[in-house]
Amino acid sequence: MANLREKFLSDSEKKAFDPEHRRRLDYNIGKYDEAVVRGKLQFKDLELAKRRAANLKFKVIENLDRYLTEFETNFEKRGGKVIWATNEKEAQRELLRIVKKANAQIIVKQKTMLSEELEINDLLQKHKREVLETDLGEFIVQIAHEKPYHIVTPAMHKSKEDVALLFNEKFGMPADSKPEAIAAFVREHLRSKFIKADLGITGGNFLIADMGAVALTENEGNGLLTLSWPKIHVAIVGIEKIIPSIDDLDLFLPLLATHGTGQNITVYNNILFGPKTAGEPDGPEEMYVILIDNGRTELLEHKEQRRALSCIRCGACLNECPVYRSIGGYSYGVVYSGPIGSVISPHFMGMKDYNHLSYASSLCGRCTEVCSMNIPLHELLLYNRNETVKLKYSSFTWRFIMKSWKKVMLHRWMLDKTGQGMKNRFLKMFFRKSWGPRREIPKVAPKNFKQLWNEKKKLN
Asked: Residue 54 CB: number of other CB atoms within 10 A?
């Protein structure tokens, strides 16, 4: 859709030329960069660990139906309930059915990008339910009526001064409140909500097939409270999050922590096997896992791009991407930003309307280098672009230019016969707009390499 592309370009331009925005992102991401370098030192052979994890995920993606069925069987043996949802509407309907059946009025949520994908907060608030984000960063963007800016760090775009002013406006705290005071206030504010909550919602970092369990990883302990206090727990998880065995966690958890925040391992790691059993002091009395497709099987149909389903959402590619670091998270206009978002979002939301995201890359390959799952992200962006052209979603003018360019490049004599002046006029006529208003179109040299080479040979 042309207006989505134009909005993306307009929003990107504003952010790219906002020095304060660039300063904040550089500062916050720089802190992660330093920590990640230290965190990677825990691995004796990091590349071997990444290859093993990538191979495991590849095996799972190639046999997704079998592992999901195994998970469902084992999870329901322990009293849990698995619900399959093919799209956003089905997932919303199933969640709402659980909420209404339990007459749940207060709902607490752990940080999960999938709930943003399904617009869970808007759904529950529309049905007069109180829903609270319990991750500090998510809580900040929720009370600011914003969306997460980054897969791992939702409030990355805000300075501590911004947050202090926000809490002054919303809760009457001093405008110069320190981060420690704000964190203490949020802890006390949410603690009463945890105790009163009727239902808790989390995502799931991994689904463990052989044990029928959900693995959650977090740093603040809010996830543990979300699944411990409320009587009903709902885990909303994408079908791609499956891993074969509980034994594989010792490979995936350190990779996720190191590439995400530079930690050796995340502070809180919980494995949920279902509702609590007789003799267990805490935990939910009922537990549901809603398995979400929502475009994932469409991506699975593509032999090359399906590798993106191996992503464990560590966020490393966003931190490394020069485009993300220039334009930020909101410019993309989708839930999943950065390189991984540019690969998967067109498949989740429609290639016709969102193919422009696959062009939001310099193709420098840095995202591929840092990916914890060895996903060749910059190559997958090229496959998306190729699909865009095949489906004729690119403009007629662009297809005509590329077709002409291909013909010329396959016939060397055409380049030789075309003079320098005509080449420069061609570049100005067709590429001036796409090259941008702040850069000069490069000029073709008076003599090409072939001519210079022939002249050199004559002199010798």
From this structure: 18
